[in-house]
Design a protein that fits this description.
alpha+beta, Arc Repressor Mutant, subunit A, 4-stranded antiparallel beta sheet, 3-stranded antiparallel beta sheet, globular
Length: 228
Amino acid sequence: MTFVAAVTGLRFDPGQDFRHTGVVKSVGDSSGTRERVLGLLLELGTATAATLSERLEVTPAGIRRHLDALLADGVITTREPRRRAVTRGRPARLYALSDAGHAAGPSAYDELAVSALRFMTPAQVEAFADAKGRELEARYAGTSGPEELAAALSADGYAASVTEQGLGVQLCQHHCPVQHVAAEFPQLCDAETAALGRVLDVHVQRLATIAHGDGVCTTYIPARKVDA
């Protein structure tokens, strides 16, 4: 699903831009390169200028010009590394999509939804979140394993991917259609996590969420035991 960055007029498609590093755009194709920067940040969550430069095969000076322009447009932001290595000099700055950058993608809720939830009692919010979780469970019921679930989520605009991690895998959702609502009502994240576990018939653990300031929604899915 194509994301339209309304504040800049740029478009980036995670399906086309993810891992699209083999071709170097022409120097004058600023918008094309910035689309690729946005697509890679959507994939990675956060990245340094050096990482973006290497992955996109753009010179360090060139990537910084694009980053400065995207910062000025408000579609990306900077973050401090959570863990600082004991090294000399200033730690490398991390870049990530801003709220505006994420909001440029498909969004299922808006301020009206937030206002409506504020009128509910805590019990009603819980019931609403549970109902949405059941809807998600029904929608993705029958998906066979994390990879197929990630493909189904991506088709619905979540830009999901799966990577091996320890004795299981991590399901990463690079876009959250309900991030602004979930930031105030984390019950939605909890209900979604529970629904994913029911779909996969395994206990899953949510490690990070975009709604709470992380670059990517990350869910750990342990490998299912096979009966002997």
